[in-house]
């Protein structure tokens, strides 16, 4: 499938498989992946040098500035026929997470791009297993207690948007999930892409 000028926003808890599925979808569609760590880490790594210390709430307004710069560049300077896949970890309980998600939607509107929110969920046991996987070491959250806290006290961000797709990826490979998303995009576009 090759279709240009769409935006996918993959939301879900850390460890659910957002980046892995985004990369698989990118291979199928040619869309550019913009992982939430690309936006967060330039700021967070300046203040949390060991990668495991909690960060101050004061970093998030600075992270928002990075996100704004990335999205403004996509809206105004990026090639019009380019497609993007964003990953974002957020919860319904945090209004800042909703605002960030809306920023991704708004850049699609500004570009005239179809917007496809994708919500990923899995069981708590699977999330705990995934969050400790070897490929996450050194750069991402790997604390199983954090995964348990997330699933106990928060709900994954619900996109509440037309064209949204929710996938339970507990028993789904990244390739199968990406294929389901690609098929969803095809149906929503209303054309064989």
Structure description:
- The protein is an alpha/beta fold and 193 residues long.
- It has a single domain (7-189), classed as Rossmann fold.
- Helix content is 48%, strand content 12%.
- It has helices at residues 18-29, 36-47, 59-76, 95-111, 124-131, 144-153, 174-189; strands spanning 7-11, 32-34, 84-88, 115-121, 165-168.
- The chain has a 5-stranded parallel β-sheet.
- α1 packs across α7 and α3 runs parallel beside α4 (95-111).
- The radius of gyration is 16 Å and the shape is globular.
- The model has no long low-confidence stretch (mean pLDDT 89).
Strand content: 5-15%
What is the CATH topology assignment? Answer: Rossmann fold
The class by helix and strand makeup works out as alpha/beta
Q: CATH first level: which class?
A: Alpha Beta
Radius of gyration: 16 Å
- C-alpha end-to-end distance: 5 Å
CATH architecture: 3-Layer(aba) Sandwich
Largest sheet descriptor? 5 strands, parallel
Please provide the ordered H/E string of secondary-structure elements.
Answer: EHEHHEHEHHEH
Walk across the major sheet and give the strand order: 2-3-1-4-5
Shape: globular
Taken together, the total number of domains comes to: 1
Total helices: the number is 7
Overall mean confidence score, pLDDT: 89
Share of helical residues: 40-55%
CATH superfamily: P-loop containing nucleotide triphosphate hydrolases
Count of β-strands: 5
Low-pLDDT residue spans:
none
Keywords:
single chain; 193 residues; alpha/beta; Rossmann fold; five-stranded parallel beta sheet; 7 helices; 5 strands; 48% helix; 12% strand; globular
């Amino acid at each position: 499938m090759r279709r240009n000028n769409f935006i996918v926003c993959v939301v879900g808890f850390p460890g659910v498989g957002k980046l892995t599925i985004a990369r698989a979808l990118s291979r199928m569609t040619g869309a550019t992946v913009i992982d939430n760590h690309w936006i967060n880490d330039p700021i967070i790594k300046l203040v949390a040098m060991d990668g495991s210390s909690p960060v101050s709430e004061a970093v998030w307004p600075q992270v928002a500035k990075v996100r704004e710069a990335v999205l403004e560049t996509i809206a105004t300077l990026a090639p019009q026929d380019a497609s993007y896949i964003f990953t974002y970890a957020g919860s319904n309980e945090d209004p800042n997470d909703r605002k960030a998600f809306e920023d991704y939607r708004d850049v699609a509107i500004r570009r005239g791009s179809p917007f496809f929110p994708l919500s990923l969920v899995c069981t708590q046991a699977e999330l705990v297993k995934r969050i400790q996987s070897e490929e996450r070491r050194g750069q991402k959250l790997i604390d199983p207690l954090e995964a348990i806290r997330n699933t106990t006290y928060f709900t994954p961000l619900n996109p509440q948007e037309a064209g949204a797709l929710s996938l339970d990826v507990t028993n789904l490979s990244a390739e199968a999930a990406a294929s389901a998303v690609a098929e969803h995009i095809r149906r929503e576009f209303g054309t064989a892409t």
